[in-house]
What we know:
Protein name: Helix-turn-helix transcriptional regulator
Domain HTH cro/C1-type: 7-62
InterPro entries: Cro/C1-type_HTH, DUF5753, Lambda_DNA-bd_dom_sf
Strand content: 5-15%
Strand order of the largest sheet: 3-2-1-4-5-6
Pfam families: DUF5753, HTH_31
Distance between the termini: 59 Å
Helix content: 40-55%
Shape: elongated
Order of helices and strands: HHHHHHEHHEHHEHEEEHH
Structural class: alpha/beta
Organism: Nocardia fusca
Amino acid sequence: xxxxxxxxRLREASGLSREQAGDHIxxxxxxxSRLELGRTSIRxxxxxxxxxxxxVTDTEELDAFQELARQANTSxxxxxxxxxxxxxxxxxxxxxxxxxxxRCYEPRAVPELLQTADYARAxxxxxxxxxxxxAIERRVALRMRxxxxxxxxxxxxxxxxxxxxxxxxxxxxxxxxxxxxxRLLAAARQPHITVQILADHVxxxxxxxxxxxxxxxxxxxxxxxxxxxxxxxxxxLDKQADLDAYRAVANQLSVHAAPPEYTPGLLTAxxxxxxxxxxxxxxxxxxxxxx
Length: 291
């Protein structure tokens, strides 16, 4: 996306249309559009030809474009899961790895970047009934690997707004749920992680139609992006009107949610007051009543 944005600005500064650029690399205007939007990789020959067309002759600038193209064409660590990973999610993983700020609103469950392996496994088992155990484990491993961005020397700032109802759903049973709340407690004390809890009576779902993630990047050539995951696909919004709307909703939610300094106390109280539940359904005695 960074490479595509820079190529688009060079083309526009040269006064050339996408059709003219496409003809120059023996392609179409739609190919140039995909390149400029970061939707496809670029061949070295096409890059050299486009830079020549746009009048780029400085050796250092040419080398910088070549290095950027090399990085853009390098597969991410998650590509080893391409045999099952949806294409629409592949793009999100790359954006998540590059983000400087990740703001999430989650009304249903603990956000994925702070889930424990057991909690994630319980959720994924519910979401993919009948899927083999090894396939579920691959999904869990991917989710855990994503969380490594929070342990980097310069991690992104993660800002989560979670519905109270999402935290009271004891996914996986009392033991797994309790360990998940402990994980949130530990995360909320880290300087680069902000966790806010939105009380049920505020009505978060009335303010936002559903979960969303707002991504901001250090690289000036990357616009902010709103990610909306659906059952069988995802939307990536980068138009200014959409960004303004979701940023306003995120700000409104953060105002209505409890301040982040209250989060440890709220989580501790939630953990203490919730009654234990059985991790497995009660079995019925043969010939007798259930207990």
